[in-house]
Amino acid sequence: MKKTILGALIALSLSSTVFASTYTWKEPKLDFESDRQIALTYINNASEKAGGLERMLEDSDSLNSEAKFNAAQMYIHGINFDKDIDKGIDLLKSSADLGFPLAELQYGKLLMGLYPSVSEDEVERNDREGLKYIKKAAINELGEAQHILGSHYAVGELVPEDRDLAMFWLAKSSNNSYALAFEVRKQFTKERRKNKSSFEYVQSRAIGGNVEYVVMLSDFYLEGWVVQRDRTKAVRLLKSAASLGSQTAKDKLDELGVVK
Hints:
Layout: E1 9-14, E2 21-26, H1 32-50, H2 53-60, H3 65-77, H4 85-97, H5 101-111, H6 127-139, H7 143-155, H8 163-175, H9 179-207, H10 211-223, H11 231-243, H12 247-256
Antiparallel strand pairs: 1-2
């Protein structure tokens, strides 16, 4: 079943089975005023750096990616100009395409419906395109982008599920002082340690001749949590268990559409 990404907060919980994980996304608080205050800070800093607001706006007509980004904030938020979302988005995309990290992050969030100052009625949503820009911002060391990207790898939304890459990007985000990533990474690591312990126990029972533990072992390879995902090996384990009379293994093979 497709998992829906609703925001950048993730909660982890372990089921009572030997190996299972459920990831629940919570919708972030959409705070327009907070966005606007951040935009004002960007604009004031950029204006001072450029030698005045007029000079900054002149720079936005050139290939100055930072000036384009700050001009975009003015149009999106209606600061010193009448609000013009379309013009603001055009400037933001131009800045992002020129490689300005903050623009990459904001434009990516905008396309994914994660930027509260622009409603989905005002921009055509495109999650996959948005994540491409988020990935660029993540490579450019923006902690929030790294958290979003890592969280998508954690649940396999828009990208293949890959918990090693999830841990990698969450670690990068945490190292860049993004607080949410630190908490998620801590819970993620705790869960991984528990599952590693479970894997070692299940593996020891399986190679000791317990058929039902062979079935449990196959789950680890199907999920790819503390071992490399390996469907071929999982099926081989299930076929062996099924040949020894395990009904659970037979049922799992049926679910996978594998001929016994």
